[in-house]
Amino acid sequence: MIEIAESEYELTAIRAQGAGGQNVNKVSSAVHLRFDIVGSNLSDWLKQKLLHSKDNRITDEGVLILKAQQYRTQEANKKDAIKRLYKIVNEANQVKPTRYATRPSYGSKQRRLESKSQRGQVKQLRGKIAAD
After folding, report:
1. What CATH number was assigned to the domain covering residues 6-92?
2. Is the pTM value of this prediction over 0.70?
3. N or C end of the chain, less CB within 10 A?
């Protein structure tokens, strides 16, 4: 698991969207997290992988922006944003194994063709009976 220093990301409190009660216009409970990928201490390989991902939360300047507003308290939203940042970075750090193409076995081909012919016979028997 990759550790990210607190100085590498910036947390900003903003007002949450959506319906609210009496407190909604006074309290900034949502949090914006800004993480500069290019200026971070991550390895060059990981930076390139993050920058070339098709994630629309990464700007053209290489800044990852996360908005956390799921919880009612600012502290809970901060924790949520940081947890999501770690999840994104650590998922990008995983190397997926190479997938090799396989071919169906002879037996599986035979079973498939047999089931197709059985199904065709069932449908053929549904036809109208010729009256003599």
Report:
1. 3.30.160.20
2. no
3. C
- Give the domain ranges of the chain: 6-92
Digit-coded pLDDT (tens) for 51-102: 888 888 888 888 888 888 888 888 898 899 989 988 988 888 888 899 999 9
Give the contacts of 55 (CB within 8 A, at least 6 positions apart). Answer: 64, 88
DSSP code per residue over the chain: -----GGGEEEEEEPPPS---TTTTT---EEEEEEESTTSSS-HHHHHHHHTS--TTB-TTSEEEEEE-SSSSHHHHHHHHHHHHHHHHHHHTPPPPPPPP----HHHHHHHHHHHHHHHHHHHHTSPPPP-
CB 36 within 8 A of CB 62: yes
